[in-house]
Write a structure and sequence with these properties.
By secondary structure, the protein is of the alpha/beta class. It has 2 domains: 167 residues, L,D-transpeptidase catalytic domain-like, CATH 2.40.440; 163 residues, no CATH class. Strands 2, 3, 4, 5, 9, 10, 11, 12 and 13 form a 9-stranded mixed sheet that branches. It has a 3-stranded antiparallel sheet with strand order 6-8-7. A hairpin with a 2-residue loop joins strand 3 and strand 4. The N terminus and C terminus are likely disordered. Keywords: Cell shape, Cell wall biogenesis/degradation, Peptidoglycan synthesis, Signal, Transferase. Pathway: Cell wall biogenesis; peptidoglycan biosynthesis.
């Protein structure tokens, strides 16, 4: 259930919040918040990790057959069975050659498990994807393999690598019902994107799905609020990342990036400083050394709140005075940051649920007009995601517009080799030290000193 209310507040604080929630949209203004800092795509795949010298695990015929069965069902996972050499595995099982079976089965398991855990798509096809995925540390594959063979649970071990979020299960179920190759590929792309993220998103987090133009607040594993979002336009697209949120700032100041100073406010400061001051700007220096800060107020480009989430892309969630933009169906208007509808409500949730403040404290901070930071007791991730196929709420899925054209490179990668995986290399046999034979020496008692 989505909750859009805060605990009761004192009258003044409650009035501020209720007016913010009920206020009609105003006409959009030309507001330029911080511009995204475009980073180069990661085009190199992680180098295969060679674990050596480790003896290859021993595969029983039953365990190898279970692996073969799982590989043959890879299509249900949005993957491709041919990638994992099922014919070679079947031949190794039939050969009764233990060394061959151990090598072929181990290689197939590690590659299949890597793609299940981390995704098949090479980095070069993951456009502007900067999320940090710790699954390789949290779910190491060698202990998984060792345990699977010891307990004869190969299939269960592989199935346990799936993301735990229910949306992922909906996508997998929908893949089996896809009517066209294009529809199937669209679902596969988004199954892949789930695997590029941490397997478990956590009990508390904020997630913004860029193609959906929505931001959701998750607390205790439940969605407690949903807010419309304005995201980056095509020329300044919002990248995908998962920084930790450490606090929320109400009545924030705005330090203008150089690009926006150059676009116009620098000239206004030089030619009409009184106008710049009326808009809340203060500055130091001039020309190339000009530094400009907009003070809190009605004209501030960040509105009444900014989520504190440090990242090298200069991306964060914030309010905006351009409320009219939220009325549009397609909301790709920003310079890369994510503008958040009903920002007072959003920042109130942050302050109360995550910073441990009372509604009264939050309301008084807003009313003061002063910049106030509410630090979170436990920082949590903000997932800026990019899913173009999502659950429709009726047991199926719906397709969203691919606003940045990021699906096509992933689809194209399906016809190419996927990401590599680590390989186990058996240790060399121990060095053979030749035995030196010596001739026994005959001694005469009393002459050798040894009795």
């Amino acid at each position: 259930m989505v909750k859009n209310t805060l605990p009761s507040m004192r009258p003044a604080a409650a009035l501020i919040l209720s007016l913010a929630l009920a206020a009609p949209s105003v006409l959009a203004q030309e507001v330029k918040e911080d511009s995204v800092v475009l980073q180069p795509d990661k085009v190199t795949d992680d180098a295969p990790v060679v674990v050596a010298p480790v003896a290859l695990p021993a595969w029983s015929e039953a365990n190898a057959t279970a692996l073969l069965s799982a590989i043959e069902g890879a299509g249900d996972e949005g993957l491709f069975a041919k990638d994992y050499n099922p014919d070679d595995l079947a031949a190794a099982i039939m050969s009764k050659d233990q060394a061959r079976l151990d090598k072929v089965a181990t290689d197939a398991f590690l590659l299949f498990a890597t793609h299940l855990r981390d995704g098949r798509t090479p980095n070069a096809a993951r456009k502007q994807w900067f999320m940090v995925d710790s699954d390789d540390t949290d779910e190491p594959l060698l202990p998984l393999l060792t345990n699977a063979l010891a307990t004869n649970n190969v299939a269960q071990a592989l199935a346990g690598l799936d993301p735990v979020h229910p949306d992922f299960a909906v996508l997998k179920a929908s893949l089996k019902k896809a009517k066209t190759p294009a529809e199937a590929n669209g679902i596969r792309v988004n199954i892949e994107r789930w695997r590029w993220m941490p397997r478990d998103l956590g009990e508390r987090y904020v997630v913004s799905n860029v193609p959906e133009y929505l931001t959701r607040v998750i607390h205790g594993g439940t969605t407690i609020a949903t807010h419309k979002a304005v995201v980056g336009k095509a020329s300044t697209p919002t990248p995908q990342l998962n920084p930790m949120a450490t606090g929320v700032i109400v009545n924030p100041t705005w330090t203008l990036p150089r690009s926006i100073i150059n676009e116009g406010i620098g000239a206004t400061i030089a030619n009409n400083p009184a106008s710049a001051r009326r808009q809340g700007y203060t500055w130091t220096g001039s020309g190339k050394t000009l530094s400009v800060v907009q003070q809190p107020g009605a004209n501030n480009a960040l509105g009444v709140m900014k989520m504190e989430m440090l990242n090298p892309h200069a991306i964060y969630l914030h309010d905006t005075p351009s409320k009219g933009a939220f009325a549009a169906a397609a909301r790709a208007f920003s310079h890369g940051c994510i503008r958040t509808e009903r920002a007072l409500h959003f920042s109130g949730l942050m302050a109360v649920y995550f910073a441990g403040k009372s509604p009264e404290e939050f309301g008084e901070a807003i009313a003061s007009g002063k910049t106030t930071r509410f630090g979170f007791e436990q920082p949590f991730p903000v997932y800026v995601a990019y899913w173009t196929v999502v659950p429709d709420g009726k047991g199926g899925v719906k397709k969203l517009a691919d606003i940045y054209g990021r699906d096509a490179p992933v689809v194209a990668s399906f016809a190419k080799q996927g990401r590599p995986a680590g390989a186990l290399i058996a240790p060399p046999p121990p060095e053979v030290v030749p035995t030196v034979q010596t001739t026994a020496r005959a001694t005469t008692p009393g002459t050798s000193g040894i009795y």
